[in-house]
Specification:
The protein is an all-beta fold and about 90 residues long. The protein contains no helices and 7 strands. The strands form 2 sheets. The protein has a 4-stranded antiparallel sheet, with no helix packed on it. Strands 1-2-5 form a 3-stranded antiparallel sheet, with no helix packed on it. The protein is elongated.
Length: about 90
């Protein structure tokens, strides 16, 4: 007997946690992301970039930690720039 099997394509995602940030560490969870350079920018409420980081990511699934222990508490925008130029923006509370 022939059985038809449907295998869904993996869902690509980038999650930021915990939010609010605890212990000054932001975790990025990358799921099925392509290999390449990822840019990270943390922007304060005045629109000023207060942290930048470049991550060389090997692709697939993984996680990255970003330390923000030396910044003031508040609400920030975290931008992740993917290798293809797509920008993912998240509100972040610290």
């Amino acid at each position: 007997a022939v059985v038809k099997v449907f295998v869904p394509l993996p869902v690509q995602s980038i999650a930021v946690y915990p939010n609010p940030v605890k212990d000054g560490i932001i975790n990025l969870q990358l799921v099925h992301q392509p290999k390449g350079l990822y840019g990270v920018r943390l922007i304060n409420a005045n629109g000023e970039t207060i942290l930048t980081k470049v991550i060389q990511y090997e692709g697939g699934n993984g996680s990255e930690k970003i330390s923000i222990q030396k910044i003031a508490k508040g609400i920030y925008s975290l931008e992740i720039i993917k290798p293809d130029g797509e920008i993912i923006s998240n509100k972040l509370v610290y």
